[in-house]
Amino acid sequence: MIILGIETSCDDTGIALIEINKNDCRILSNIVSSQIKIHAPYGGIVPNLASRAHLKNIKPCLTKALQQAKHPKIDLIAVTIGPGLIPSLLVGANFANALAYNWQKPIIGINHIEGHIFANWLLPVGEISNSQFPIFKPKFPILCLVASGGHTQLILMKAYGKYKLLGETRDDAAGEAFDKVAKLLGLGYPGGPIISQISKNGNPMAFDLPRPMLNSNNFDFSFSGLKTAVLYEIKSRHGLLNTPLPRKGCSSQCCALPQQYIHDMAASFQQAAIDVLISKTIKAAKEYKVKTLLFSGGVAANQELRRQMTKIVKKELPKTKFHIPSPKLCTDNAAMIAAAAYYKKRPSSKQNWSKIRTNANLKII
Ligand code: KG4
Ligand code: ZN
């Protein structure tokens, strides 16, 4: 069957077409229009600007996706309905509803987190190509770590559609912490890819940063304290512990920080985040005796985290199969939404477009 995926939960407009059956899958097209240039001056996503950009970009993305896929006959439309920013979600949901009504196709609403998990089903493509690959058939129970700009969750998947939330962040998401620390260091937005890049030139042991909740008796995370520890370290360097930053006349909190300091701080922060994410995941995988471990979301694109996680899983969980999607499929895209839709109970009616409802706080369970 051919599924059209639509993703607009945050700041990426995504439209994809996948051809999928119980044995094989093929990504026919996977268009992502990024809004980084729009939000970068603000150091974070501005919801109203995001929805305006989705409105402008969604039709050209569809045209491109259909052209690249050579206008196949679509069987199902899948659209993200939450969690996410309501102004952004509404653009995708309304657009998908209009297409479903106009084309008389069935439509299905997909949870964005579930989409991230199902990016793993598109795993065999290193780079996105138009070739067919055997469908992923993982053994249950599966543990999924989803770490993105909006979420950090450990989810136990007992079967298709059967989820249990084991733990999640109590404050900032992991990606959000990367973005905020990058802002403190004056590195720009989004912080994850920049920190990942410059950490290669830094010493991860240069600063003794905290590993929040590392030894807590649960599977929750906390990243806000880690970010604050970076802030206080920068302040103490400036001798400004009791002064709010930024200083007068300085637009950023990184004023006069030497380049090596920035690289060392980025690497130390990254290592602290990696340590917590890996340690909690391994602990949960052991406790629930999982057969498969999956990792996805924007933070899973981090090369150092991928490398360390792969090494530790091999050592600590030799019998567990471990998968991470290719970096392009870790960050927001619509192919993952289409893949998740294949495993959902499909709507019986073609006229269910009126039933699609967005929910900013949609839960996976
Ligand atoms: O999954 P995603 O594209 O969107 C959300 O659902 O939030 O994730 C975006 C987040 C951002 O916070 C970004 O800084 C982070 O993922 N990110 C990374 C990397 N690439 C993106 N974090 C660490 N290392 C990376 N290479
Ligand atoms: Zn996401």
Largest sheet: 6 strands, mixed
- Give unreliable regions as ranges: 247-251
Shape: globular
| Radius of gyration based on Cα positions | 21 Å
Q: Residue-averaged pLDDT, rounded?
A: 92
The SSE order reads EEEHHEHEHEEEEHHHHEHEHH
Bound molecules: 5'-O-[(R)-(carboxyoxy)(hydroxy)phosphoryl]adenosine, zinc ion
**What share of the residues lie within helices?**
25-40%
Spatially, the strands of the biggest sheet line up as 5-4-1-2-3-6
Tell me what portion of residues adopts beta-strand conformation: 15-25%
- Taking the alpha carbons of the first and last residues, their distance comes to 27 Å
How many strand elements? Answer: 11
Briefly note the structural class of the backbone.
alpha/beta
Number of helices: 11
Could you describe the 3D structure shown?
- This protein is α/β, with parallel strands linked by helices.
- Helix content is 38%, strand content 19%.
- The protein has 11 helices and 11 strands.
- The protein has helices spanning 36-39, 47-68, 86-103, 112-118, 174-184, 191-198, 224-238, 259-287, 303-316, 327-330, 335-342, and strands spanning 2-7, 12-20, 24-34, 76-82, 107-111, 133-134, 142-147, 152-159, 162-168, 292-296, 321-323.
- The strands form 2 sheets. Strands 5-4-1-2-3-6 form a 6-stranded mixed β-sheet, sandwiched between helices.
- Helix 4 packs across helix 11.
- The relative contact order is 0.19.
- The model is unreliable at 247-251 (pLDDT under 50).
- Bound molecules: 5'-O-[(R)-(carboxyoxy)(hydroxy)phosphoryl]adenosine and zinc ion.
- Residues 10, 148-150, 175-176, 178-179, 190-193, 196, 297-299, 301-302, 331-332 line the site of 5'-O-[(R)-(carboxyoxy)(hydroxy)phosphoryl]adenosine.
